[in-house]
What we know:
Elements: E1 10-15, H1 18-27, H2 33-36, E2 41-46, E3 49-56, E4 59-67, E5 84-87, H3 95-104, E6 112-115, H4 125-140, H5 161-168, H6 176-182, H7 199-202, E7 203-204, E8 214-220, E9 227-234, E10 239-247, H8 249-252, H9 258-269, E11 280-283, H10 288-296, E12 301-303, H11 308-320, E13 324-327, H12 331-339, H13 344-348, H14 360-372
Parallel strand pairs: 1-4, 1-5, 5-6, 7-13, 8-11, 10-13, 11-12
Antiparallel strand pairs: 2-3, 3-4, 8-9, 9-10
Helix pairs in contact: 11-14
Amino acid sequence: MALEQHPERLHLIAGVTQASARLNILDCNGYGLLNYFSGRCREGLYQGKPCLYVQALSGEKVILVHGGGKLGDEKPIKGNSFGMAYITEVNECHPVFVKEIFDRTIASQDRKIYHDLNPKADNHWYYEDILGFHEARQADDVTYGYNYGHFTIADNMSLSDDRLREILATYDKKSVWYQRDILGLRKQAEGRIYDMFDPELHTCHDAPAANRGVRYIAIDYGTVNPMVFLDIRDTGDAVFVMREYYYDSQKELKQKTDSEYAADLQEFIGDMSGDNYPVYVIIDPSAASFKAELRNMGLRAKDADNTILDGIRMVASLFMQRRLHIHSSCINLIAELMGYVWDEAARQRGEEKPLKKADHGCDALRYFCKTIINLKRWGHG
């Protein structure tokens, strides 16, 4: 008999992406399912989908690993019935996917749905449509089965007291990032996005990383909008943005072709021998025509992870840890970082997104950080 007809044997874990589900639930800094079921589990495939097989007293369990960040991610799980489901960073997932998980567990005889979430503005859809709905029913019926727990960064078992003190020292207690990341509060983002960015603290005037670390080029592609190249060195301990190329066709009154930009990039990179060779050029996935030019130049192009809010949070974390440094010659990027703000009109609608104005250098920086940097190598993130 197919596993779908025995929902207590088939379960689901999910996140914004399949990779985030694996990282946050299976691994979880050594506290995840792989550790909990050590010696009794193995990773594999179930009907072509990644899963974890777990040996339990009641028999073998199959735990599918899935992503739910986009509309359409719910389609592959239609038709399945799950005994239990756990969605990590659930309020980053698509509402249709979250609703589908509720439907997919209806047949379970021991139905349990677990969510963990990142703090958002208090009018976020998840708080109103999910938490508010079930909180009201729990208030009416104490046996309803809803339970909510609030956690702060101090509850993170993987952080030592010394490490926790180091992290706390990097945050401005008045900032939205402290309210969310440290206290776990629902806080509306408004005003400057990188309010922790201080030119006195985060800019450098020499070239400490010019001849060491791994080199990358981050690009925000533009034709009518500005084209930005950032020359970045990742030393393993910190990230240095050493130089910028910033061409605004509207100011210059002349648009450039992809081949002209490719020539400019070649000059910008210069000698590509030895350690000076960029490991990757990180670029917006939508810039298909320019990626072809990069391949013709012999460069390895890597599609940027364009997850906006998570990318912004990562850049902010790097600034707060003082691991991200901008060379003082990058005047356009520095100006954008100082003026990068949340979209007030979107905030009024309950959305959080940056104002699309003078953000091209910020986008290129975010592409690099979200695509390449794993904050967990520094014990944070």
